[in-house]
Amino acid sequence: MADANSAGGWHVMELASTAPDTAKIRRWAQSILSNVREDDVLDVLLVITELASNIFDHARLPARLKLHRSDEPCTVSIVAEDASPVPPQLQPSRPDSVRGRGLVIVNRLAKQWGVAQRNAGKAVWAVIPCAAAT
């Protein structure tokens, strides 16, 4: 995984390995959001972990995560891009299932989320409200 800072305030993490390292992804996101209230950071960490896990479980490389914080109003935008054209499906979770709750979590925590088809794959995005740390 490589980390880079792109133009326009977007932070980018390339996902180059087929082995997920969600702890590294969470540390990366947390370091970018050091000036955001802890409860909001935890929401972002849940969402970015779920989107990254979906890449490793269902998509194809190359893939990348993008993260951006806006000030007015305070929001955190997350984009998970991968090479698979297959869109994720929001499905109801079942109490007896040990998996399948990722997009349910994203749907509950994000102010907005969606999927954009790209020439070579898709981008799943989410916008999470936040407040500046005091």
Helical content stands at: 25-40%
Task: List the total number of helices.
Answer: 3
Mean pLDDT: 86
The arrangement of helices and strands along the chain is: EEHHEEHEE
Proportion of residues in β-strands:
25-35%
Write down the Rg.
14 Å
Main sheet specs: 6 strands, antiparallel
The geometry reads as globular
Low-confidence stretches: none
- Biggest sheet strand line-up: 1-2-3-4-6-5
Tally the beta strands. Answer: 6
Straight-line N-to-C gap: 32 Å
Task: Specify the structural class.
Answer: alpha+beta
Descriptive overview:
The structure is a single chain. The protein is α+β, with helices and mostly antiparallel strands and 134 residues long. Helix content is 30%, strand content 31%. It is built from 3 helices and 6 strands, in the order E-E-H-H-E-E-H-E-E. Strands 1-2-3-4-6-5 form a 6-stranded antiparallel beta sheet, with helices on one face. Strand 5 and strand 6 (121-129) form a beta hairpin. Helix 1 packs antiparallel against helix 2 and helix 2 packs antiparallel against helix 3 (102-109). The longest helix has 21 residues, at 38-58. It starts with a strand and ends in a 5-residue tail after the last strand. The model has no long low-confidence stretch (mean pLDDT 86).
